[in-house]
Design brief:
359 residues
Length: 359
C-alpha cells in the first residue's frame, strides 16, 4: 500500500518543516504524537536515529531546525533541504560537515554536534573514526579523540560514558570546567565535551572568563548551507533520483558495505519512507507499507526510486523505513506501520505545520 502527500509550498497557508521528537535530541516520540503536539496537518517520519543504548533517539545524519544545527551530516549522505522562502524550491543535496572551536588563543576542529563523544553512528565522521571513516549503515564507529558541542537541544545534562573533560560556555566565555559526565547544559549556553587530544585541548583552556566560540556548518560541495534561509534540513539516504534518473547511491552512502545490507536493506523489499522534489519545486512525501504478506510487502530501493519518479519527482532520497515508516494526516495514522506493537517512536519527522506562532 502506497500513501502520498503532494505538497505545493507556494500554496500552503503554513510551512513545511521538521520536528524533533520531544523537542530534544534524547528519547523518541511517535510521528502521530509529534503531529498532534505541533498542530501539524500532515507529515511522515524523518531520518535515521540511534534506536537503543547510549544516545538513544539521537538523529543520525544531518538535521537542522530553526537556524540551528542539531546533528552533523554523515559524510556525503543525501539530505532534503526545505527553504524558508516558499518561492525557493526544495532540493536534495549530498552534505558534509565542518566545525571549529576556539578557546582563548587556541582552536581545534569540532567532530560532532549533540551526540556522545567517541561514538559515531553510521560512521562517516572526521579523521580518526575506527574501523572506517566511510559511511556504514548499522555500524557505530569509535574515535578515541573527539570534540563535541552539546547544546540545550541535547537535554539537560551531557551524556554518560567514560569520563571526559567538559567546558561550560555562556555569554561567549568559559564559566566552568570539570572532569566527568552529566554536566548540566546551560539553557543559554553549551558544553564542549572532549576525549583524547580534544580533552587535552579543553584541559589547557584558560580560567573562567576566557573567550570561547564555536562555528558549525553543513557544506553542499564546498559551499556552506545558510541555515537562516532554511526551515529545516533532514538527512536520510541513499539518494534515489538525480535529474529525473534513477541513481541509487547505496555504495558511497554506506548502504552496500556487506552482503546483509545489499540483500536486506538495499535489494530487499521493505517498508519505506521517501521524499522527492518535482521540477516545479513541489514536494512528495511517500510511505510504502511492507512486511505484511497478502497486504503489502514493501519495495526495494530501485523500486522506490521508480515509484517516486512516477509521482513527478526529479530529485529524491530514502528516509528511515522499516517499522519507522509512518504517515499522519489530521492527527491520525493513515498507513499500517509494520512493527507488531504498532507505531514506533522515532527521532524526528517532516510535517506541514502552522505558521510560526500559530498552533
Amino acid at each position: 500500500m502506497v500513501n502520498v502527500l503532494r505538497i505545493d509550498r507556494a500554496q500552503l497557508s503554513g510551512r513545511l518543516s521538521a520536528v524533533l521528537s520531544n523537542g530534544r535530541v534524547t528519547g523518541t516520540e511517535t510521528t502521530s504524537s509529534m503531529a498532534r503536539r505541533t498542530g501539524a496537518a500532515a507529515g511522515v517520519n524523518g531520518g535515521f536515529f540511534v534506536s537503543r543504548g547510549l544516545g538513544g533517539g539521537d538523529p543520525v545524519g544531518a538535521l537542522a531546525l530553526g537556524e540551528s544545527l542539531v546533528s552533523e551530516s554523515t559524510d556525503g549522505r543525501a539530505a532534503l533541504l526545505l527553504p524558508r522562502a516558499a518561492g525557493t524550491p526544495a532540493r536534495v543535496a549530498s552534505l558534509r560537515f565542518r566545525g571549529r572551536a576556539t578557546v582563548g588563543a587556541s582552536s581545534r576542529a569540532v567532530d560532532g554536534v549533540d551526540r556522545v563523544p567517541g561514538r559515531v553512528p553510521a560512521c562517516g565522521g572526521r579523521g580518526g573514526d575506527r574501523p572506517t571513516q566511510r559511511p556504514r549503515h548499522h555500524l557505530v564507529c569509535g574515535d578515541p579523540s573527539e570534540l563535541v558541542v552539546l547544546s540545550p537541544r541535547f537535554g539537560s545534562t551531557t551524556p554518560g560514558g567514560p569520563p571526559r573533560i567538559e567546558l561550560v560556555v555562556r555569554g561567549g566565555q568559559v564559566v566552568g570546567r570539570r572532569v566527568g559526565v552529566g554536566t548540566p547544559i546551560p539553557s543559554d549556553g553549551y558544553v564542549l565535551s572532549g576525549i583524547g587530544t580534544a580533552g587535552c585541548f579543553l584541559r589547557a583552556a584558560g580560567p573562567p572568563g576566557t573567550p570561547a566560540s564555536t562555528s558549525t556548518q553543513l557544506l553542499d560541495g564546498g559551499t556552506p548551507v545558510s541555515l537562516a534561509d532554511h526551515e529545516a534540513v533532514v538527512g536520510g539516504g541513499p539518494r534515489l533520483l538525480r535529474g529525473g534518473r534513477v541513481a541509487v547511491r547505496g555504495g558511497p552512502e554506506g548502504f552496500t558495505a556487506d552482503r546483509a545490507l545489499r540483500q536486506g536493506f538495499t535489494g530487499g523489499r521493505n517498508p519505506r519512507t521517501l521524499a522527492g522534489v518535482t521540477a516545479g519545486g513541489g514536494v512528495r512525501l511517500v510511505t510504502v507499507d511492507g512486511r505484511r504478506p497478502g497486504y503489502s510487502v514493501g519495495v526495494t530501493l530501485r523500486e522506490a526510486a521508480r515509484l517516486i519518479r512516477s509521482l513527478g519527482a526529479r530529485e529524491a532520497l530514502n528516509l528511515d523505513g522499516g517499522g519507522s515508516s509512518t504517515m499522519v494526516v489530521g492527527g491520525a495514522v493513515v498507513n499500517r506501520p509494520s512493527d507488531p506493537a504498532g507505531e514506533r517512536g522515532v527521532g524526528d519527522g517532516i510535517f506541514v505545520l502552522p505558521e510560526a506562532g500559530e498552533g
